[in-house]
Amino acid sequence: MEGRVIPVEIHGQRYPIRSSLEAEYVSRLALYVDEKMRAAAEQTPASDSLRLAVVAALNIADELFRCRDLKRECDGELAERAGELERLLDRVLMAT
Known about the structure:
Blueprint: E1 4-10, E2 13-19, H1 23-43, H2 49-95
Antiparallel strand pairs: 1-2
Helix pairs in contact: 1-2
């Protein structure tokens, strides 16, 4: 992978991340993961870092899946509304 090394800190550990993405964006991603790790630590206080990372990853995956489902639902509603508008427009055009 091309790019520069961007140092980030997640759950008290520093990681050198090599990325071609903007450094600020990578830092925001790391901050988000750090927040999820901390939230996981609050839920399961006696866990090791690996367990916390897995719980955080599952929580992030859940968010992703829910967002995807919501997007599909919204896309379906938009397609349905567009179809209704198209039928209405066809009726209006045929009436003239």
